Amino acid sequence: MIKIIYDKSIKNGLIEFGIQIPVRSDKAQRAFENLEANPIIGAHIHDWHIKKVSGNITRKDLLRVHSNEYVDKLFSNKLEQEIIRTYELIDRDGKPYRYNPAEATLPLKDMFTKRTLKRAAGSYFCCKTALKFGFCFFFGGGSHHAKKDYGEGFCIVNDVVIALRKLQAEKKIERAWVIDVDAHKGDGTADLTNNDESIKTLSIHMASGWPLDSPEYDEAGRYNPSWTPSNIDIGIEKGEDHTYISKLQAGLFELEKTFKPDLALVVLGADPYEKDELASTKNLSLTLEQMLERDLLIYNFLKQRNIPQAHLAAGGYGESSWKVYAQFLEYVLLDYYQKNLRIS
Question: Which domains does the chain have, with CATH numbers?
Answer without folding.
Answer: 2-340 (3.40.800.20)
